[in-house]
Design goal:
CATH topology of the largest domain: Ubiquitin-like (UB roll)
Number of helices: 5
Structural class: alpha+beta
CATH superfamily of the largest domain: Beta-grasp domain
CATH architecture of the largest domain: Roll
Radius of gyration: 16 Å
Distance between the termini: 54 Å
Order of helices and strands: EEHEEEHHHH
Largest sheet: 5 strands, mixed
Strand order of the largest sheet: 2-1-5-3-4
Number of strands: 5
Helix content: 25-40%
Length: 158
């Protein structure tokens, strides 16, 4: 199988890689580019552990072919903090103890960030709806929802 040459941008940096035509974005991120924040939970787009954004759209990277991201802007959990400065969502997840084993956390953080970029003042129902595609097997969702709501308020300056 002939490898494809892909040029893209990941977390604001130019990136290029070779991949098989059937390689998923998740496998390239983790296995070739050493961006291991996105996790493979299910491999079928049902759990949200591999959530990233492609051109601002939240996607399950296990369902996106790497060949489809030619020229795209990809953002992963690794691009959320600014150096050592955590994003407000990351801070609030720590403050609210909204994580346990951590497998789902990167995907939930990426999804929550995508929500707050589209809607900086979501209702609790909107947060729950938006994060419905992200499954957590360790913790209840209340701490996660509270952390997102608190981060949204802080980011709005409320």
């Amino acid at each position: 199988m002939k490898k494809l040459h892909i040029n893209t941008s990941i977390n604001g940096n130019s990136a290029e890689f070779l991949c098989d035509p059937d390689a998923t974005l998740l496998s390239v991120l983790r296995d070739q580019l050493n961006l291991t924040g996105a996790k493979e939970g299910c491999g079928s787009g049902d759990c949200g552990a591999c959530s990233v954004t492609v051109n601002g759209r939240l996607v399950a990277s296990c369902l996106v072919l790497a060949a489809e991201v030619e020229g795209a802007e990809i953002t992963t959990i690794e691009g959320m903090a600014e150096g050592e400065v955590l994003h407000p969502l990351q801070k609030k997840f720590l403050e609210h103890a909204a994580l346990q084993c951590g497998v789902c956390t990167p995907g939930i953080l990426v999804a929550a960030k995508a929500l707050l970029e589209k809607n900086p003042d979501p209702s609790e129902t909107e947060v729950r709806f938006w994060l419905a595609g992200n499954l957590c097997r360790c913790t209840g969702y209340d701490k996660i929802i509270n952390a997102v709501m608190d981060a949204a308020a802080e980011m709005r300056g409320a």
